[in-house]
Amino acid sequence: MADLPGRGDRQPVVLTGLSVLSAYGRGADALLAGLAAGRPAFAPVTRFDVANRRVGVGALLPGAPVLFDELLNTVDEACAGAGLDPAARATAPLLLAVHGDPTGSRVSSPDVTGHRTGAFTAALADKAGLAPGARTYTSACVAASSAVADAAALVANGMAERVVAAAGYLVDPDQFALFDAGRALAADGAVRPFSAGRKGLLLGDGVAAVVVESAEAAARRGASVLARLVGWGRAGDGYHVVQPRPDGAGLARAIGAALDRAGLSPADIGYVNAHGSGSAQSDVAEAAALALALGEHAATVPVSSTKSLHGQALEASPLLELVATVLSLRHGALPVNAGYLGADPDCPLNVITEGPLERSPSYALSLNAAFGGANTALLVGAV
Amino acid sequence: MTAPETTEVLLPRQRVPQSAPRPSGLVELARGAWPESDADTDPPALAGFVVSSFSPLVAEVARRCLTRVYGQPPAAPARGPRTAVIISTTTGDVATALSVARAVDTGQRLGPLLFFQAVPNAVAGYVAARWELGGPVLCLSPAGPGDAVALALAEGLSAARLLLADGDADEALVIVAEQAVDDGERDRALAVLVRTEVNEGAGS
Question: What is the mean predicted confidence (pLDDT) over B72-89?
Answer without folding.
Answer: 98
